[in-house]
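Shape is hard to put into words, and the shape of a protein is harder than most. The fold becomes a row of whole numbers, each drawn from a learned catalogue of backbone shapes. The outcome of that step, for a single protein, is printed below.
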Amino acid sequence: MDELMNTGTVSLADVSSYLPKNRVAADYFVRYADPDDAISSAMFKAPPFRRHLAPGETPADMAEQAIAPMLERRGHQLLDEVDILIVHTQMPETFIVGNGGEIAARLGITPEWLIDLHNGGCAAFIHAMKLAGQLLVNSDARSALIVTVQNAAGQVFTQEQVRGKPQAAIPGDGAGVGLLVKSDDSPILDIETRHLPEFAGQMTVVADPPRKYWEAGEGQIHVGFTESKIAKVLARGNRIVPEAAHAVCGRIGVRSDELDLLVTNQPNRAFLRNWRDALQLPVEKHPDTFDECGNLFAAGIPVTFDQAVQAGRVPAGSLVMFAGFAHAGDFAAAAAVRWGGR
């Protein structure tokens, strides 16, 4: 599990992001709340706001919007050198295949490596960093684009039978993009990825009456939670994210309290507080977008980092730790980057 990238030649050169215009207040969900739903937990303390994608908005639309600021800064010619495209879509809309091909076509690129990364969940951005980094190091590829799209909030969690559940108010929609290149300008110092496959089946989708997700039926699909499952996920997530981050710190020779910035996925306030406490970091070193954007799943890390950079919170030379976990705890990852500035 302890795998050092062992190269200073791969950099996270830039990030950019997109949030839909539709800003939805928590009151929307309050009016539909089901008083008979007994699930109550820190897992589901709703943020004040989140964004929902527009009707008909596709993953390719969101990806195109997310990369637009990067193209404006760097020029469209950067697409000419993209030999690796890794796409994670929370809810793929192209059945079986995924949305990577559609996104590549929209960007006008034909990468040698086009990967739809269906696992990795909320930590998929880091998972993709590792895959892209290894491909860059071991091939003639010139650069890689990582695209993470969260598109389930305004589609799954606003369904008539789902919007009254406590879980419905947590997610928001958005997309993030990362550019990896061969350089020492903003080096990825180390990446830790940990698969815990024994927990892979614990994040389930359910309907009433029961059916498989692809079968027609009256019940609308949603994530199945019980009090017992929530307690286990909270305990697991509190443990595995700091463990991954500490492993990276140990290999690059720094204490966690020496980090300049911690950027994590954004499941809820309880996780955010517990993670920074475990790494002995003050709140000002742990930017988050939860109150405005909710849980952005895999898009949370690039969106939050992009906003921190835009706000001037990440000067050149900052030591940044990205960290997160996926689903019910079947994957955790952390990556350290010496940010080179924008």
User: Anything to note?
Assistant: Residues 22 and 323 are 28 Å apart (CA to CA). The mean pLDDT is 94.
